[in-house]
Amino acid sequence: MINENEIYRAALIIKKGGLVAFPTETVYGLGADAFNPAAVARIFEVKKRPKFDPLIVHISRTEELDSVVQKPSGLINSLIDVFWPGPLTLVLPKKADLPDIVTSGLSSVGVRMPDHPVALKLIEMAETPIAAPSANPFGRISPTSAAHVKKYLGSSVDMIIDYGSCSVGVESTILSLVDEKRPVLLRPGGIPVEEIIRITGPVYPPDMMIADVLAPGMLPRHYSPRTPVRMLEDYFYKPNDSKKLKIGLLSLKKPMESSRYHAVEVLSESGDLAEAASNLFAALHRLDCAGLDIILAEHMPETGMGATIADRIRRAVHE
Questions:
Q1: pLDDT(242) > 50
Q2: Do 242 and 289 meet the contact criterion of CB atoms below 8 Å apart?
Q3: In 113-179, which ranges are continuous DSSP H helix?
Q4: Containing H/E element for 307?
Q5: Each residue of 265-274: pLDDT tens digit?
Q6: What's the confidence (pLDDT) of residue 65?
Q7: How far is the CA of 73 from the CAs of 14, 45, 115, 207, in angstroms?
Q8: Mean predicted confidence (pLDDT) in 207-214
Q9: What is the distance between the alpha carbons of residues 144 and 87, in angstroms, rounded to a whole number?
Q10: How confident is the model over 83-129, as pLDDT tens digits?
């Protein structure tokens, strides 16, 4: 049961230009009034986020789309009908009065409606769309609990709403529909691309010749713990290594051999990829706090939610 008095206090902070960390079904977000440039600038400052990396705007009702994007139609409405509220961000042509700092100067903006009662109530009570990236330092592991936010950002946030763990546990899927005839998958996420294709038909990869970062999570290195991460299959483990490295393992299912590892995190005993995705960031947080020298990660199946997990691991590994 949500605490409406707590959410009301958080909404007042948003209205006054403050920052609130709040839960969504994906990860905890660091939110500010999307139409207050000074408040949005604080997001970049607190996260140490580069100004070229745009933010996602969160709304609580489809009617609020009109305040941030040019009028949607056709395929956009079909996707909204099926997937909102939920972990799908649509990149659309933005309204001119949405501050450029939100979109890093781009003419498009990512917008979504979160599937979480606290997030929806906060946006409703704040009476404004909320710009919110993940509530963590830029490039680090995304937070899926209030404890993660406190560890990373602490007193730099005006308020943290604690509502337990995030159910989906990975960020939203981002689909660009700036050109409705050519849907572009900018980031795999909480909705498998196979489900989106049923509505859109073929989707395309981003044009690698475009230098602009069109959406969050597109940089090669992201979602990274402080402990180095390497792929298990690429790392030649030597039992007699004189350095006696403390090695951790990130595994989909329980490994056949675990005695060689100082710590093991199993994402899903049954191999369920949705469960594995929901556990991914929490598992990385625990491994990062285990005093390890290196974290080895198994390759994940590149289907369904496995593609999202594999994407996050690749970006954590990137040197």
A1: no
A2: no
A3: 117-126, 146-152
A4: helix 305-317
A5: 999 999 999 9
A6: 95
A7: 30, 36, 22, 24
A8: 62
A9: 14
A10: 999 999 999 999 999 999 999 999 999 999 999 999 999 999 999 99
Residues 71, 53: contact at Cβ < 8 Å? no
Give the SS3 label for residue 120: helix
Residue 178 burial by Cβ neighbours in a 10 Å radius (0-12, 13-18, 19+): middle
**Are 155 and 172 a contacting pair, CB within 8 Å?**
no
Contact yes or no for 34/129 (Cβ under 8 A): yes
State mean pLDDT over 249-263: 90
Contacts of 242 (CB under 8 A, 6+ apart): none
Distances (CA, A) of 63 to 59, 121, 129, 306: 9, 15, 11, 33
Nearest to 56 by CA among 142, 117, 125: 142
* C-alpha–C-alpha distance, residues 18 and 33, integer Å: 8
pTM over 0.85: yes
What is each CA distance from 65 to 73, 89, 173, 191, in whole angstroms? 12, 12, 18, 21
The H or E element spanning position 309 is: helix 305-317
- Which residues, other chains included, contact 55 with Cβ-Cβ below 8 Å and sequence gap of 6+? 34, 40, 43, 102, 103, 110, 131, 132, 133, 216
Helices marked H in 54-201? 75-83, 100-103, 117-126, 146-152, 193-200
Query: What are φ and ψ of residue 229, in 5° steps?
Result: -115, 135
Residue in 216, 267, 272 with CA at minimum distance from that of residue 53: 216
Q: Which residues of 14-32 are buried (b: 16+ CB within 10 A; e: fewer)?
A: beeebbbbbbbbbbbbbbb
Residue 52 backbone class (left: φ over 0; alpha: ψ -120 to 50; beta: rest): alpha
Report which DSSP code applies to 65: G
Among 22-26, 36-40, 169-173, 230-234, whose mean pLDDT is lowest?
Answer: 230-234
